[in-house]
Design a protein that fits this description.
It is a single chain. The protein is an alpha/beta fold. It has ten helices and nine strands. The N and C termini lie far apart (47 Å). Bound molecules: fe (iii) ion. Fe (iii) ion binds next to loops.
Amino acid sequence: MIDIHSHILAGIDDGAKDFGDTLNMLRHAANEGITKIIATPHHNNGKYVNNASDIKNKVIELNERIKDQGLSIEILPGQETRIYGDLLEDYEKGEILTLNHSKYLFIELPSNHVPRYTKQLLFDIQLAGLLPIIVHPERNSEIIEHPSILYKLIEKGAATQVTASSVTGHFGKKIKKFSLQLIEAGQAHFIASDAHNLSGRTFRLREAYDEIGKEFGSELVYMFQENAELVVEGNTIYRQPPLEIKKKKFLGIF
Ligand code: FE
């Protein structure tokens, strides 16, 4: 399995604190069956700044240390960038990193709203030849209240990554239900851990895929797993036309 979202690099955001943490997380991931992990440190989220060159160097260094430890897991470069107006300008400057140097770019929205300029910026990102992946939309409170906002962004070409722990219910019942609705509606393109540690925010990738297999069948699990591989290889992902999520009428009331 490939995990395309993680905070595995030590001491640069709210993920692994030191190399010991990183190693423990990697051992756990390897036991879960994960063979490749994209390191996606927070960038420009108001707390952490991690420019492309720093991340690339840290990934090279970590892969060397992994070899010394005899672990068979590979770390690839990425970045989790909070949406901001000058993002494309900074991409041109070389500060923004796509997932493993592909055309796929992680975009994080604020947790409680969707900025008005999102639609235009995601469009401009695509004009620049990149493909935006909105990370964990299932945890954004404005999207939970108004799922049509996300639907419209996907319709216009954006992809989404749902977090494994959302699917397994570790962020609560409401987020689990919404995650499954997004998956059912073809509005999810990737499942990833967004692992920060081994306690509250661990991997649970295998568990999430098991849950999706139970709910929707193994074909969808293969699609998600294959999409993660296609991103790492820089190829085009599978996607279906998204369906709108309709609020269900309450049964029994006519
Ligand atoms: Fe993250």
